[in-house]
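Objective 1b. Sequence-to-structure analysis of Vps53 C-terminal domain-containing protein.
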Amino acid sequence: MVLLDLPSIGSQVVRKAPASYTKIVVKGMTRAEMILKVVMAPHEPLVVFVDNYIKLLTDCNTETFQKILDMKGLKRSEQSNMLELFRQRLPTPPSGPEGSSSLSLLAPTPEQESSRIRKLEKLIKKRL
């Protein structure tokens, strides 16, 4: 919300931010949320992690995937297997009955999700 109000901070005239600005902020924050979801997701099984990445980040490429793996703190030896799998799966994202069964494994339970959020909050508090 602060980012959306940024254009009018310090202004005596209270007005809504331009639609183009709002669209850019929402798009950027949505992408940031998707990146956080991928980074916080468990990286095993590898296929599920790669499929989750492809599903959540639509403009995915090898360079971005490498950055995500770096953010997760994975060793280069672990990353090489994942990169190879990513390159195999990128041209043909999962679809049909096989893909839907693996995609159903992507959704964490509410307990897992809240646990991950708590861990992230603790990490942020430690850094502040």
